[in-house]
Amino acid sequence: MAMSMGAARRGKPKIRPPKRPTSETPIKDTWSKLAHAIREIQNHNASKLSYEEHYRYGYNMVLHKHGDQLYNGVKALISEHLDRLAEEKIVPTFPRSGGTRGAGKLGGGAEAIERALEGDRFLKAIKSAWEDHTGSMRKIRDILKYMDKGYSTANGLPLIYDVGLTLFLSHIIRSSKHPIHTHLISTLLSQVQLERDGETITRSTVRECTDILLRLNVPEREGGKTVYVTDFEPEFLRRSAEFYGLEAVEELDKNDAAQYLRRVERRLAEEADRTVHYLSTTTHPALQELLIANLLTPHLQSVLDMPGSGLVTMLDSDRLPDLRRLYTLYLKVPKDEGKTALRTALRADIEERGKAVNEGTIERNDAGPSTATIGQDDEDDPKGKGKAKSSSTSASPISNAINSALRWVQDVLDLKDKFDGILETAFMGDKQVQVSINEAFQSFINANPRAPEYLSLFIDENLKKGTKARSDIEIESALEKTIVLFRFLSDKDKFERYYKNHLARRLLYARSASDDSEKQMVTKLKMEMGFQFTQKLEGMFTDMRLSNESANSFRNYQNRHGTISIDLSVNVLTASYWPQPIVATSTCTFPSALQPAMETFQKYYDSRHSGRRLTWQGNLGTADVRVRFKNRSHDLNLSTHALVVLLLFEDSKAGDSLSYSEIKSSTDLPDADLIRTLQSLACAKFRVLSKIPKGRDVNPSDKFEFNESFTSPLARIKIMQVASKVESVKEREETQEMVDEERKHQVEACIVRIMKDRKTMSHNDLISEVAHQLSSRFSPSMSLIKKRIEGLIDREYLERTNDMGSYRYLA
Question: CB–CB of 197/108 below 8 Å?
């Protein structure tokens, strides 16, 4: 706008102010000049006007109390100008198509291009009108500053620039003369839809029009919010919901789960980008919620269960990127519905896989009898060199049973490794997902009643020497993994019983690969279960250490009191530490050849300890003896029971035989031990005795004779008891009976311990507390706890109070 400046005088320069209108100047002329100036501004001829002069016109009208005339007159001029802008600039650009056709796709090709161009032309017209109007309003505001200050503010009226915005809304955006509003909203929606369909639009034009809507506010009576929020956003969200609801159904029909999730991920990113670049960021939360509500929430289970591509397929193929995308998207579903659905499906899948592992083990076990027949003990011939081979099968039933047990544990460990990797990589180590994974493993592991036995066998296989070369690091890794599975066991007391048996065999047979590894394993168990759980295991190590020390002392004793004819090594075991099958008193009449050595050790032991009683056990002992056959002599390594039987044939002649009953009478061995011993001597690979009649099984009617014609290329031969480390059905029943009996005592001890501390407790509280305290070892049934309470009441440890639902401890 041009400024009127007075001519500079010579000498001292001076700015000459404009002439002050006299009071006689008619207001009508003042308004006429000011109105002409405003029209010139609107016609883009502001450069010809004087700012000071027209400012003074506005000043005088307000000063002479004609502010209302000025205020209303300017409003009328603005309205007139806006109506002209609508007629000249906007109406001619109305899109011929009229608007969107519902929420679906708008079509492609030439039609889409034409629609995009028409919409862009119309939006540019809106933008042009806005820029024309706001440019004029800024200049009008400048010359009417005094009106804003002296009249509008004083009378509580909007400033003239704000009036211009309001008039733009009523005469352009919401024009009553032309359907501009309808075309504008539908065109904006059409442009968005075209881009969703893959067409190219001019984003800057859409952005400028949405900015106009964001700068215009509706009247206070309508909420005072922006036109964007009241007019555009609700319709945009409604159309978006319809579109994505239809798209979800279409995409699920034609795509697999991974493709669908990628589509959803892309749509979320596209809409987020859209709100940043040409809509409003305030729309983003509602739009994202809408996308999730239409693309994910109704189809959570459908995606997970999709045949050939759902969660199971992703897990089978280790599709970590797809699984991570699945987790990330499901995490967005509100109220944890997505994560809950994922956790439930994941747990079901793991349980199904675990069920297959369990069934596979059952099938392998059912392939042959689980009881021992003929063959070397796997523990003492780990590489299978001494196993009897059959023409029909290459592995004995014993080996099959052990391999089945080890295979089960390895399968479970492999499954755990798989899902641990998926948890960290795809599920971001989510603790809730981890809980579901652990619950699934706990469920199917405990569904296998032989899990405690199998886990102990697996540890035994890793800790004993001679199985296969393993580094300390490999052993440590295997033990660490088995501890993870150990945590899942509910019957930890049953595992303890098996572990003690296996540890006892490793120690007594000197089969441990590393003492350090053995002690590390016990330390790990102590950290998991506490001192009471491992107290007896540590006692077994102590017995073995003291026995080794005693061996040196016994040799010194012999030097002083005379040596014995055989080299005797004795392990002295504390009965309370070792498992019952090891220290249980078993009848055996030792031959006279062994008696002097046993008596000498007895005297030695009595000289060092008073008040202790030794009971000789031969069931886990071994012996080395040289036997002369017809062709040559062989050094035999066999069990103590086998030596006792073999010595019966020491003075036999060719053709002499002993019946089963005679051998039993002479050795006093139990039938089970005797049968196993005779099988190892007469039915295994190295048959130093001959059975009459020949056969694989030992019967009470059989006879046995010394096999003088026995030959073998080996100078030293191992003949160990035929035994299977996997329990037979009968042995498992016996083990379960012992476990149940021990649990009775543990439940009673727990009840007494709790009641001694609490003095009085209600029935439900007592049962709950007992179950909680014993849960680390096993899960006691409610009926077991009730029976033990009744037993303690009968033995007067407890009594019922007057309130029949409570108990009192009796000191």
Answer: yes
**What's the CA gap between 11 and 711, in Å, rounded?**
144
Backbone torsions φ then ψ of 530, nearest 5 degrees: 100, 175
Do residues 143 and 58 touch, judged by C-beta distance below 8 A? yes
Quick one: what percent of the chain has pLDDT higher than 70? Answer: 87
Cα Rg, the chain, nearest whole Å:
48
Specify the residue for token string 């159309």: 239
DSSP bridge partners of 561: none
CATH number (3.40.50.2300, 1.20.1310.10, 2.30.30.30, 3.40.50.300) of 18-216 reads 1.20.1310.10
Please determine, for residue 9, whether its predicted confidence score (pLDDT) is greater than 60.
no
Per-residue model confidence as pLDDT tens digits over 234-260: 999 999 999 999 999 999 998 899 999
- Tell me the torsion sign for CA atoms 560, 565, 567, 573: negative
Is residue 338 within 8 Å of residue 433, measured between CB atoms? Answer: no
Say which CATH topology domain 220-297 has: 5 helical Cullin repeat like (1.20.1310)
47, amino acid identity: S
Q: Which helix (H) or strand (E) holds 637?
A: strand 633-639
Residue 145 makes CB contacts below 8 A (sequence gap 6+) with: 55, 58
Which DSSP helix (H) or strand (E) runs through 723?
none
3-class secondary structure per residue, 344-372: HHHHHHHHHHHHHHHHHHHHHHHCCCCCC
Distances (CA, A) of 568 to 323, 586, 667, 710, 721: 64, 20, 20, 28, 20
- The full length of the chain comes to 811
Q: What is the pLDDT of residues 506-538, one digit of tens each?
A: 888 888 888 888 888 889 888 888 888 888 889
The pTM of this model reads 0.77
The closest of 38, 191, 57, 46 to 118, measured between CA atoms, is 191
CB under 8 Å to 249, separation ≥6 — which residues?
none
Bridge-based pairing of strands 716-719 and 633-639 is parallel
Hey, what are 713's tokens? 């290329």
**Residue 271 backbone zone (phi > 0: left; psi -120 to 50: alpha; other: beta):** alpha
Residue that is written with structure tokens 């530490």 in the block: 577
Residue 326 neighbours by CB under 8 Å, 6+ apart: 257, 261, 303, 311, 314, 342, 426
> Both tokens of residue 638?
């066999």
Average pLDDT, the chain: 84
* Segment (H or E) for 638: strand 633-639
* 618, 640 Cβ separation under 8 angstroms: yes
Q: What is the DSSP letter of 648?
A: G
Do you find a cis peptide bond into 17, omega within 30 degrees of 0? no
**DSSP reduced 3-state for 179:** coil
For residue 728, how far is the Cα from the chain centroid?
36
| 146-205 residue pLDDT tens | 999 989 999 999 999 999 999 999 999 999 999 999 999 999 999 999 999 999 999 999
Q: Do domains 18-216 and 220-297 have the same CATH topology?
A: yes
Asked whether 466 and 383 are in contact (CB, 8 A), the reply is: yes
CATH of region 310-385+393-448: 1.20.1310.10
When pLDDT is cut at 50, 70 and 90, the band that residue 8 belongs to is: very low
- In what order do the strands lie in the sheet containing 760-762? 760-762, 806-809, 798-800
| pLDDT of the residue at 170 | 93
Q: What stretches of 361-480 adopt beta strand conformation (E)?
A: none
Q: So where are the chain's domains?
A: 18-216, 220-297, 310-385+393-448, 622-719, 730-809
Q: 703-706 and 658-659: which strand pairing?
A: antiparallel
Report domain 730-809's class.
mainly alpha
Let me know if domain 622-719 sits in CATH 2.40.100.10: no
- C-beta contacts of 681-684 below 8 A and 24+ residues apart: 681/638, 681/642, 681/645, 681/646, 681/719, 683/374, 683/722, 684/374, 684/375, 684/376, 684/386, 684/388, 684/719, 684/722
